[in-house]
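Subgroup meeting minutes
Present: P.N., E.W., G.H.
Scribe: E.W.

1. P.N. recapped why we're keeping a running log of single-chain structure predictions: easier to compare across weeks, and new members can see raw inputs and outputs side by side.
2. G.H. added today's entry (364 aa).
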Amino acid sequence: MIYNLAEKYCVRIKSNGHTGSGVLLPGKDTFYVLTAAHCLGDSRPSADEIIIEKQNDYTSEFQIITGVEIKEFNQEHDFALIEIDFDHEEKLLYQYKLGRGVLSENEIKFCGYQGVNLEQYRPFTGKVLSTSEDIGCFKITLVGETFDQGGEDGHYLAKGLSGSGVFIYRHNSPFLIGILNSVITDKAWNDDIDCCSIKHLEQYISEYVDLSDFENLKQWNENLERERTDREIEAFKKENSDFFEKLYRKNNVLYSATSKANSVTAKQVRKFLAMRDNIRTIENDYPILYSKFKNIVKRFVDQVEDDYSRNVNESNDAIGLKLELQNQLKTQFEGLPSFTNLDLSEYQVIEWLGICTLNFTKND
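Output recorded in log:
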């Protein structure tokens, strides 16, 4: 599953006859839903009066998320923070980061449950128009679309989107910067929307990133990505010890220096994990394409075992064979659509190394 999309963190909220949107939020010690206060009604409700629901995709059944306690109900800045019981999807909530120091003209994405179709979430794209860090608010506008449709007031068409999480993407990572409050005027003039920033939540969140400091942002993101992938590699080694040991053994044949073999193995596991998630998405969403991919792989299996697996005298011999095989695969995969942005040949060679379909040993 791909997690770094705004819709993956989107929830629907019902309270006191009101329906709105919200966004899942990781805190210091627990998890929350952040939404607009007016989505909960004119006065502070109790947690058991709020229904929080989430979809895995826009057509799936709604799943209930249990509200534990309302931590904040701020009508002045129009936000509410609800503590939730959400342990089973912990992984999801650590895939994005929290951002402040928003700059005007930044592109944003948000996703919520529009009043005209409350049964399916809908993503939107826009940009930041202006900000006020002092009072923790900012204004956005839609890009490439409009709330003014079919003669209906923009206020009516935007109804239900209040509380939607607003994300900015940096280095392919989403940063939550705040939530939607309300459209500007009943006509949604210029498709502008007032928003509340995460400034008001600092006591609940462990850390956030200054999005105006590009150099520190890049370094922070790279460090976090490295830490995340290191944890994933350790987990992968424990859960797939045989695969990892076989892959590592082959790399010690391919690369004479142990440090190089260690580095390459770590990179391959990172790539394999990322590509495996995307392969699974293709399998679920594009079964015919996935079938073509697997048929090509199947035709190569005997050739890999017979013509490429062997004892070698030098590391370069094995490297040459590996590259030759990868290039042959790449030629076969060129007939598939390129929308996946994947190097399927690299993914398949890594898998073959890990299951010993492609096997290299070194002559003593």
